[in-house]
């Protein structure tokens, strides 16, 4: 049972931490389904050296996020089968792309606000359909939004990772 009136989305602070792109130039599209990629996938910073720090949470592309090896070890048992972790390599640094593969039909359509492009402007969730564990995406936006079950949110708050913030959405 969900004990909060808010569900949080994970937002990478890409302005304050190093972000990456695949070295081979290919685009990775994380849309709520497992990916078949050769691992480790070699990445490089997405801009010339900007001097930004390497954080616990970073970005390769919208719709996924990257975690440090330490945060991966912490999250993997908590995420279960809700996320696919893909090994990334940058120099001697091991990181993991977190591809959320759990897509849930839990948006309250009547109370949520949609934007003119068909996306979700303000998400309001049906409390009875929220998963208790792991990460999830919503069927109305399986590309960009990454949402946290109460258990994952509490685990991340306890870990206090750098490079991430949490944005709240309302439950009905």
What does it look like?
This protein has about 170 residues and is mostly beta strands. Helix content is about 10%, strand content about 35%. The protein is built from 2 helices and 14 strands; from the N terminus they run E-E-E-E-E-H-E-E-E-E-E-E-E-E-H-E. It has helices at about 70-80, 150-160, and strands at about 5-10, 20, 40-45, 55-60, 65-70, 85-90, 95-100, 105, 115, 120, 125, 135-140, 145-150, 165-170. The strands form 3 sheets. A 6-stranded mixed β-sheet has the order 8-12-13-1-14-11. It has a 6-stranded mixed β-sheet with strand order 2-3-6-7-5-4. It has a two-stranded antiparallel sheet with strand order 9-10. A hairpin with an 8-residue loop joins strand 12 and strand 13. The longest helix is centred in the middle third of the chain and has 11 residues, at about 70-80. The two termini are about 15 Å apart. The mean pLDDT is about 90.
């Amino acid at each position: 049972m969900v004990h909060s009136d808010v569900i949080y989305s994970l937002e990478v602070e890409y302005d304050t931490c190093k972000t990456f792109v695949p070295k081979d130039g290919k685009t990775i599209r994380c849309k709520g389904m497992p990916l078949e990629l050769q691992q480790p996938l070699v990445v490089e910073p997405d801009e010339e050296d900007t001097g930004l720090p390497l954080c616990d949470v970073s970005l390769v592309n919208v719709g996924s996020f990257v975690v440090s090896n330490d945060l991966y070890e912490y999250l993997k048992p908590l995420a279960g089968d809700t996320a696919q972790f893909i090994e990334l390599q940058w120099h001697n640094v091991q990181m993991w792309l977190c591809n959320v593969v759990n897509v849930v039909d839990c948006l309250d359509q009547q109370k949520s606000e949609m934007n003119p492009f068909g996306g979700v402007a303000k998400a309001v969730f049906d409390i009875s359909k929220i998963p208790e564990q792991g990460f999830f995406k919503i069927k109305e936006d399986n590309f960009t939004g990454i949402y946290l079950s109460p258990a994952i949110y509490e685990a991340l708050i306890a870990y206090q990772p750098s490079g991430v913030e949490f944005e709240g959405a309302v439950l009905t």
